[in-house]
Design brief:
Helix content: 40-55%
Order of helices and strands: HHHHHH
Strand content: under 5%
Number of domains: 2
Number of strands: 0
Shape: elongated
Length: 124
């Protein structure tokens, strides 16, 4: 339908008949909504948006293919692909600051005294 509008179709009845899925149940409302004036500038902008949409779709398809290849499995868009034997359930979510000592001291090497000072000053 959008491609038809870009290509100059202005007949609201013909456009409404292009509806798919659940939108087909609302042809009269769609026909009314499609009445109006679409200028050359509107068609230009719509063409740009559709081109961008197609570009993003193609990139997503490439990314999905890459993921599937790296995982060695056939993963398709819109499916619940099983990526590993890890269960899909998530445990508890850490509280803010719960892992500060591990991160700041053990991993980043800051002294515990500095961490305590930051806590007192309200930095963390």
């Amino acid at each position: 339908m959008l491609e038809a509008i870009v290509n100059g179709e202005q007949d609201s009845q013909r456009l409404a008949e292009m509806a798919q899925g659940k939108l087909r149940n609302k042809i009269p409302e769609l026909q009314e909504a499609l009445q109006g004036r679409v200028s050359r500038h509107h068609r230009f902008l719509l063409r740009e948006l559709l081109d961008h949409h197609h570009f993003v779709e193609s990139k997503m398809q490439r990314i999905e293919q890459e993921v599937a290849e790296r995982l060695g499995k056939n993963v398709c868009a819109g499916t619940d692909g099983q990526f590993s034997d890890t269960p899909g359930a998530v445990g508890s979510i850490p509280r803010p600051g719960e892992h500060n000592e591990e991160i700041y001291c053990s991993i980043l090497g800051h002294p515990r005294e500095e961490l305590a000072r930051w806590k007192e000053e309200g930095v963390i």
